[in-house]
UniProtKB/TrEMBL annotation:
It comes from Pythium insidiosum. Residues 396-456 are annotated as: Disordered. Gene3D superfamilies: 3.30.530.20. It comes from the Eukaryota. InterPro entries: Rab4/Rab5_effector (IPR052727), START-like_dom_sf (IPR023393), Znf_FYVE_PHD (IPR011011). Residues 415-434 have a biased composition (Low complexity). SUPFAM superfamilies: FYVE/PHD zinc finger. Coiled coil: none annotated. This is FYVE-type domain-containing protein.
């Protein structure tokens, strides 16, 4: 059963949206400034005197600032930095990070293997558009569980934060994709003590294409630790999440595959018709693989395990694979299903342009808005129908069918109500004032801890 959300959806005025956009803009700008300092001034090197290695895995390393203990104002704040490279593209990174609805938030948590026990999208500040598909700002509430062996020391942690994604340019005009997670305090979403321990954090990830197949990732995070006992646990759990950033591209690939299956399988209004009937191939009856043309006993038997869900062809063992997809059921549950796809369809899916996938999802969501369906629920319909086909297909004879730029933080939204800010919004790791000097944690804490500049 899907957990109940404790907070209602927030109604945001124009002033509320502007305030949230301003906070996001300041924090992302500060992260970009530090990234460029790291690239051009430090030449991509970290000083061992300032940073200590926490964990490393594959090509990603996570560091903890050595100077946090020397700064009285940061006694409860830790500055972490994750740098490295992963396989993929910046567009796929943006697709994997993009969240517009609660359904997508839960799906992303499953693909990322995050210990999320409850979550909600409290407000949508900026919706992606066809001309800016990667731009999105939402306010989210997320609960993360605690491993059983640590439950005596820590309760489940919840947080309320701004989640922003988008594309911007460095000073040398290189494109980078960003994701911001930044805690805020809302009177409408108070702490749920004693059930959860409210966590305050802020991290901004930047993704830059370094060659045709690899992306450099740079993530800096400020986390607030409640006490010295739990501080190492929070540092470790944060580092673990940064080391799993390669899963963002896995999330993007599975999202592409789900989109590919949904758009290639005409089940809306024809749920009883298997996709194989659209792609009848005489070679199937001869027991030949629909991809490589080799004879195959499983193809000759027309085993359901050999049928590609996307194109409907029967393929041999070497030309097919199984992938685990997640989809939302009609009850809102996130369910996992193993699907069979041929390697040709899988290649077409993962090579699809991420921006085009998002645009198509946006258009599909608008078409179905009156029916209150989403791309994921359509996928669940397809996967459920596929299970039905696999149970009955062998008993059903198959016959040939009869003759188908602007800025990253626009503050205006057509749906926004007018009026002054009603949220009582506050930046939980610093002031929400638009003054650069008052944005204490972003400009003072970061620059002091990273550069050792007390005048920052």
């Amino acid at each position: 059963m899907t957990p109940r959300r404790p907070f209602p959806t927030l109604e945001l005025s124009t002033a509320d949206r502007k305030e949230i956009c301003q906070i996001a803009k300041q924090v992302v700008r500060a992260a970009v400034d530090e990234y460029e300092y790291f690239l051009w001034t430090d030449h991509g090197q970290l000083s061992p005197a300032r940073w200590s290695l926490v964990q490393a895995k594959d090509d990603i390393s996570v560091y903890d600032s050595r100077q946090h203990a020397a700064q009285p104002r940061s006694e409860r704040q830790r500055l972490l930095l994750a740098v490295g490279t992963v396989v993929g593209t910046v567009e796929d990174a943006a697709l994997g990070m993009m969240v517009r609805t609660e359904e997508e938030l839960r799906l992303k948590a499953r693909y990322m293997q995050e210990a999320v026990t409850n979550c909600a999208v409290l407000a949508v500040v900026q919706r992606p558009k066809a001309e800016k598909p990667f731009r999105s700002i939402t306010v989210q509430w997320v609960v993360r569980g605690v491993p059983w062996h640590l439950r005596a020391l820590s309760k489940p942690r919840d947080s309320v934060f701004i989640d922003a994604t988008g594309v911007l340019s460095l000073s040398n005009n290189e494109r980078v994709v960003f994701q911001l997670v930044h805690s805020i305090e809302l009177p409408q979403a108070p702490s749920l003590q004693p059930m959860y321990s409210r966590t305050k954090l802020s991290h901004c990830s930047l993704w830059r294409q370094v060659d045709g197949t690899r992306v450099e990732t740079y993530t800096r995070a400020v986390i607030e630790t409640p006490d010295r006992l739990t501080a190492p646990l929070m540092v470790h759990s944060t580092a673990e999440s940064f080391l799993s950033m390669w899963r963002i591209h896995h999330c993007a690939q599975m999202r592409k595959l789900a989109w590919f299956i949904t758009t290639r399988t005409p089940l809306l209004g024809a749920a009883d018709k298997p996709p194989a009937s659209r792609n009848y191939d005489k070679s199937d009856d001869e027991g030949k693989c629909g991809t490589c043309g080799k004879a195959s006993r499983s193809v000759r038997r027309r085993s359901a395990e050999c049928m590609c869900l996307a194109c409907g062809r029967f393929v041999c063992n070497e030309c097919r694979t199984k992938k685990e997809l997640f989809a939302a059921s009609t009850e809102g549950e996130i369910v996992a299903t193993s699907v069979v796809v041929c390697l040709s369809c899988l290649t077409l899916a993962v090579r699809a342009n991420a921006a085009d996938v998002l645009r198509d999802e946006l258009a599909a969501a608008q078409r179905r808005s009156s029916e209150e369906k989403t791309m994921a629920s359509s996928l669940h319909h397809i996967l459920g129908s596929a299970r039905h086909w696999r149970e009955s297909f062998l008993a059903t004879p198959r016959h040939p069918p009869s003759e188908a730029g602007g800025g990253a933080f626009d503050q205006s939204q057509p749906s926004a109500s007018s009026g002054s800010s009603s949220l009582g919004l506050s930046n939980s790791l610093g002031s929400s004032s638009s003054s650069d000097r008052e944005t204490t944690w972003t400009l003072s804490t970061w620059r002091t801890l990273v550069r050792g500049d007390p005048s920052a």
